[in-house]
């Protein structure tokens, strides 16, 4: 991914918020053969070193074996809000269409977790996503069944050695133009995207 200082997302707290709010990630590994790609839920975890960020996740054991997880480095991609921006929103130009987005690439060597730690990740994952429901469901509701199928999953932990975060949110445009885009995405534009509009608004406020 092209790294540009203007769009760099480096603050650990903002990166944690990105992961916590968009926990469906893409795991990529390659050991000299064809790349292996999986999609899986991840959670923010407490870092043990000075990296400032760590994640845990789980995937089907068969997928973990295909990745040969834990044997070599991996990249975990967390995609935040994103969407198309039409030049017709900008006003006076010339302008061309663009795609605004927030994303983070976490590079590092995953650690495969044991059975107990994997089950803890499963429980935490359920608690995290159930937490916004009026009556959260608990894995303990089907504890015996959950324990019986848990061996078919593999938990892992990744404390990245390199993080490339990017939030390309029209920082290269005049404030008036950004305000028009935010208003359009938050309103009734055909490409309406309130979450992206909110991300742009936060960056715009931070620029003041």
Automatic annotation (TrEMBL):
Gene3D superfamilies in alphabetical order: Electron Transport, Fmn-binding Protein, Chain A
A Pfam family per the record: FMN_bind_2
Coiled-coil segments on the chain, per record: none
InterPro entries named among the record's database cross-references: Split_barrel_FMN-bd, TR_PAI2-type
Stated name of the protein: Transcriptional regulator
